[in-house]
C-alpha cells in the first residue's frame, strides 16, 4: 500500500474536465429545447416558442459557464487550503507483477509484448511434441 497526497489541482484543468462533464446535459437540454420550439411552432403558442429558444440556446451556455466557474473556484480554494492544512490523502495498491518488474529494472510493456508475440506465434505455428 502506498499513500499519495494531492497537493494541487490545476484550475484550468478543472474547467476543462467540468466542460467535458457538462456537454452531455447541455446536449440533452438542447434536444428538449428543440422539442419545445417544435411544439410552439406547431401549436402557435408564443410562450412555448420563447421557452424553447431559451432552453435550446441560453440554458446550455449558462450551464457550462456556471459549472466551469464553480469548478475553477473550488480548485482555487482547494489549492489555498491544501498548502496550509495538507491535501487529500489517497491509499493505492500497486499491482504486484508490474511492481516487481519495475524493481528489477525491466520494461513491463516489453515483457507484455514478448508474451503476446509468443502467444501469436504459438497460434500460427503450433508445435506438437
Describe the protein's architecture and organization.
The protein is mainly alpha-helical. The protein has 4 helices and 2 strands, in the order E-H-H-E-H-H. It folds into 2 domains: 2-93; 95-129. Strands 1-2 form a two-stranded antiparallel ribbon. Helix 1 (11-43) runs antiparallel to helix 2 (46-85). The chain is flat, with a radius of gyration of 27 Å. The chain starts with a strand and ends in a 5-residue tail after the last helix.
User: What topology, given as strand order, has the largest sheet?
Assistant: 1-2
Gross geometry = flat
Taking pLDDT < 50 over at least 5 consecutive residues as the criterion, the unreliable ranges are none
Q: What's the domain count?
A: 2
| Oligomeric state | single chain
DSSP summary, beta strand count: 2
Order of helices and strands: EHHEHH
Q: How far apart are the termini?
A: 44 Å
Task: Please sum up the structure shown.
With 129 residues, this protein is mainly α. It has helices at 11-43, 46-85, 96-104, 108-124; strands spanning 2-6, 88-92.
Key structural traits:
129 residues; mainly alpha; two-stranded antiparallel ribbon; 2 strands; flat
Give the SSE map.
Layout: E1 2-6, H1 11-43, H2 46-85, E2 88-92, H3 96-104, H4 108-124
Antiparallel strand pairs: 1-2
Helix pairs in contact: 1-2
Amino acid at each position: 500500500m502506498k499513500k499519495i497526497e494531492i497537493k494541487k489541482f490545476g484550475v484550468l484543468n478543472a474547467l476543462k474536465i467540468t466542460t467535458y462533464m457538462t456537454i452531455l446535459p447541455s446536449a440533452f437540454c438542447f434536444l428538449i429545447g428543440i422539442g419545445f420550439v417544435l411544439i410552439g411552432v406547431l401549436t402557435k403558442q408564443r410562450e412555448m416558442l420563447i421557452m424553447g429558444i431559451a432552453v435550446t440556446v441560453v440554458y446550455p451556455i449558462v450551464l457550462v459557464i456556471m459549472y466551469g466557474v464553480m469548478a475553477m473556484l473550488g480548485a482555487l480554494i482547494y489549492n489555498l487550503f491544501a498548502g496550509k492544512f495538507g491535501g487529500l490523502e489517497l491509499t493505492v495498491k500497486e499491482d504486484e507483477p508490474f511492481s516487481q518488474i519495475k524493481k528489477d529494472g525491466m520494461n513491463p510493456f516489453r515483457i507484455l509484448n514478448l508474451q503476446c508475440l509468443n502467444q501469436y506465434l504459438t497460434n500460427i505455428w503450433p508445435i506438437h511434441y
